[in-house]
Amino acid sequence: MSLDWVYYAISWILLVWHGAWDAIGIPDGAAIGSNWAWILAIIFLVVTVRVILFPVFVKQIKSQRAMQALQPQVKALQEKHKSDRETLQKEMMELYKKEKANPLMGCLPMFLQIPVFLGLFHVLRRLNPDKSEAGKTLYGWTVTQFESASSAKIFTAPIAGKFGSTAEELARLGANGTTVKIIAGVLVLVMMGTTYLTSRQMILKTGWAEDPQQRMIQKLMLYGIPFSLLISGAIFPIGVIIYWVTNNLFTLGQQQWVLRKFPPPPTVNAGKPGTSTRNPVQPAKTSSLLGRRKPAPQAPAKPAAPKIAGPKPGAKPANPKKSRPAKRQG
Predict the structure, then answer these.
(1) C-beta pairs of 26-33 under 8 Å, 24+ apart in sequence
(2) Is residue 51 a contact partner of residue 20, using CB atoms and an 8 Å limit?
(3) Closest among 248, 154, 122 to 192, alpha carbons compared
(4) Hey, is 91 helix, strand or coil?
(5) Cα separation, 263 vs 273, whole angstroms
(6) CA spacing 20 to 30 A to 226: which of 13, 280, 309, 311?
(7) From residue 1, how far is each of 4, 111, 327 by CA, in Å?
(8) How many CB atoms lie within 10 A of CB 193?
(9) pLDDT tens digits along 176-234
């Protein structure tokens, strides 16, 4: 299956944003060793894609809420069919179908962004000043636009360069190998850190899933994907890493907003017989996004009732009637 339509779409969005920044006065020339018109074009490629996918992201959150609401029923099925894996899977699928909950919906936004990532990777990998004119004008580019992007840099490292660039590739891009490795290495570490934080943010807000399949997906996203970037990041062009980091930062902000708008359902003693629903105890938040523990809020102490001093030992009890004035006889 040809992905040319993806390459044309990604190129069109990049060129439109580059033209927009150029029109408002951001030049192609380098400032602080960076060609900001092209860097901003990559950043706003992220914004464009995320705005398009926002309805899908909201559906993802709603699906996760539906899965959380079904956890008591899922747990009951696991207890009932603990020795029959096939029947358990069949009844769980029937439960999800009946309640219109999709376990795979949590990964859908990520899957939909894969073609965008592959398209940008392909487009930036092609940036090579030595290409023929036919190669430069592929996917709707002009020769001027292609040559401008081929020489675009961030802090003097070309956006088409990568940590694992060969000496021949660096020579074609007119780049210093040490500079490229430093900039690419720092960006890869930032990419890993922000990828971990986006997964951790979601798990902190929604909690670990009871379903083993969902829990396995959560662990894969939390630990597996960031670790894999340590290796695969060496082959990513710097422009692609800029895209990934920007996408992660956008995700952190978007998740924070959506999770506040669609908070997790209450799970404390919900629906259990013999439990009171008045004044439910809310679990204290014990960790933040970066793993620091937060103290649980302390309830204000009630003021102690004033103590009334009793009579001293051996003292005569006071008679309140004696202290009243005698009534005058008429």
Answers:
(1) 28/148, 28/152, 30/153, 30/156, 32/155, 33/153, 33/154, 33/155, 33/156
(2) no
(3) 248
(4) helix
(5) 25
(6) 13
(7) 9, 17, 112
(8) 14
(9) 999 999 999 999 999 999 999 988 887 877 677 766 777 887 888 888 888 999 888 89
Task: Report long-range pairs for 269-273 (Cβ below 8 Å, ≥24 apart).
Answer: 271/72
The pLDDT tens digits for 89-135 are 888 888 887 776 776 666 677 788 889 999 999 999 999 888 888 88
Calculate the average pLDDT of the chain: 79
**Of all residues in the chain, what percent carry a pLDDT higher than 70?**
76
CB 18 within 8 A of CB 215: no
Residues, the chain: 330
For the chain, state the CA radius of gyration.
32
Residue whose entry in the numeric block shows the structure tokens 């649980």: 296
Rounded CA separation 129/134 (Å): 12
Please state, in angstroms and as integers, the Cα–Cα distance from residue 41 to each residue in 51, 194, 314, following that order.
15, 21, 93
Q: Which pLDDT belongs to residue 49?
A: 93
- Could you read off the pLDDT of 218-275 as tens digits, one per residue? 888 888 888 999 888 899 999 999 999 999 999 899 888 877 877 766 653 343 444 4
Rounded distance, CA 5 to CA 115, Å? 10
